[in-house]
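Troubleshooting entry. Yesterday's outputs looked truncated, so today I'm pasting the complete records for two proteins to confirm everything comes through intact. If either block looks cut off, that's the bug. Protein one:
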Amino acid sequence: MTATGTREIREVAERALAWVDAHRADFALGEDALAADGEVDRSWKPLGELAQVCATVTRHTAPPDPLHARAAGLLEFAWHQTGQGELFPRIQRLEPFATYPLEVYGAFASAGYRHPAYEEAAAVVARTRSWWLTEQEPTRRLAVLSAEERSGIRRAGPEELLPAGTWLAGRPEPWTFERDAGYAATHVVFHLTDWGRDPGALPPDLASYLADWLPAWLDTCLEAGMWDLSCELLAVAATVPRPESEPLLEGAWQRVRAAQHPSGALPELEHTPGGAGDDGSERHFMNHYHSTLMAAFAAVLTTAQPREATDGTTDAAGRTRHRQSGQGAPA
């Protein structure tokens, strides 16, 4: 990657997080966050994705970096939305066998935000046969296992089932790749590598398969204007060993950069309903927030090297810390 290319990719991340910061109110949990009929995909899911991407950005940037500071501030905002973690035990009591609270909590835990009381309650449920016998798609179960690991939860269960049952682990005919398979494949990589923190955790056979076929899949998604999935594939490309000077990757970033609005938002699809204008509507937010977060996520993985923690967890301010009794954010 040329110096100019690296700088331009870095600008994609900066602009994307600037848009996210300007729209932080849209990530806030509403009064329906604990409602039995609440829409999780419009409340907890965006907040959890915000926390995950910002955790990655703070991990891969140094504290003096303005990108690090912005991501750290967004992490603090997201943790505040959970009542410094207090909403997690509350939702645990309401929905003890729902996995999404633990998945969201795992993103915070990876950045050093802990709530021991919730972890204790979640561990009790995770020891039940009902928890680990619940039928789930393999990629989703891998997400739950990852969240358990991040949250310090250990359970008795057939962990050897994964990732063998996933689409990616089967190394299927590359021409069978399509949208759903693409999202499943990228998330297998994210969970196995702890969202880019441990690239070496990806099994060599999967890394080799991805090195062979990811360029063709990425080119297909770019041609179709599937910016969200393209960014996820670029994040995988940053995790899988590949030649830094590969022309496709630099060309892919040029296309993503061209698709990014001046505001920093990136639409999920080239022909996203609502067009390029930010009218402040919920529809605009829902059609742009995930792809914009993925643009920042992939750009940071592509341009930065992770900082090594000397012990325990590294918090959002770049300090290494141990688990705290966690009624608040890291000190």
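Protein two, checking that the full record survives here as well:
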Amino acid sequence: MNQPLSPSTFPPGFLWGTAIGSHQSEGNNHASDWWYRETQPDSRIAERCGDAIDSYHRWPEDLDLAAGAGFTDYRFGIEWSRIEPADGQVSRAALAHYRRIVEGAVARGLRPMVTLHHFTLPLWFAAEGGWQRADAEERFLRYVDALAPVLEAGVNRVETINEPNIVACLPQLEQNGGDLSAGLPVPDEKLTQIMIAVHRATVERLRARHPHLEVGWGVSVQDYQAEPGAEAATDAYAEPRDQVFLRAAKGDDFVGVQTYTRGRIDPAGRAVAPDPAAQHTMTGWEFYPHALGGAVRRAARVVGDTPLIVTENGVATADDADRVRYTTGALRSLRAAMDDGADVRGYFHWSLLDNWEWGQWGPTFGLVAVDRTTFARTPKPSLSWLGALAPAKS
């Protein structure tokens, strides 16, 4: 599919949004485990989040940018550690803050999707074992219940956990410094089951108390491609890394697919190093736009009738023309997958703004540049280009 992209490329009512992470953009999240780790004298985190890009205070401007460009949907995160900075102590001010963001999005014609957990945890929760705590599910549901004033302010969709398969890998990634040269580690089996149990309990709770919401979660799903003779090995490679998480979403209102690149798998079930002659992004990943279509096709086979939403897709590059080129290829591959039967209901670009990328400031994914001294926002040409492709509202 090589015809030019236009608002008619995707069906009316198709969700057309941008995504942003809370800790990565808000800044000064003092009560979280990540803030604690970043600020230790012997921290292995190279660059601190600090003030981030001050979206905690500048969210109206961020919403104006998204809505003004033509987007119809907005995915953002809520910080559990702000809502419950101490065990059992709920901050009414934090609830009011996030409620204002929801109301602000709705007032601008943006449909809010909120993410309840995006890697960070309250320090008090993490210090006593985090997700390994015997009462982890109970404590998370207590936080979910506290969010009622926010969820009832106009939220349309909830992503319970961002990339649970990466959450289940975090202990290993912390040990190896985040090195992905040999591919994604196999997620911890116990953490995998905990993530699934917490998600299922959260879906049940939200459906019971907020039946208007559409609920799912967002899984990191790369385009795993089999080298000759490696079809069975590739399926075995993908099973613990994402397919078990996709399968756990069956029956949800949607499952989010979050894709950036491909991975090639050899007959021994090992990830093949990216071709050094290929173009690479600022994160070291292969510049491979059509990964989105491949990931969506595989996810659709695994989840069956559960609808898909692309909850993250983008590229780390300093060249905005490359961002447009990458996104054009990704969207064409997505449309082709839909033509072949994949039930995809929306697309969220990562990210609206250049922000802190989990220990480093260098990679820039944003449609909008941010001056880290003044926090001034400067739209890149890709912002208006992508926003103008928004399908007609149904």
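Both blocks look complete. Sanity check on protein two: The first strand starts at residue 15 and ends at 19.
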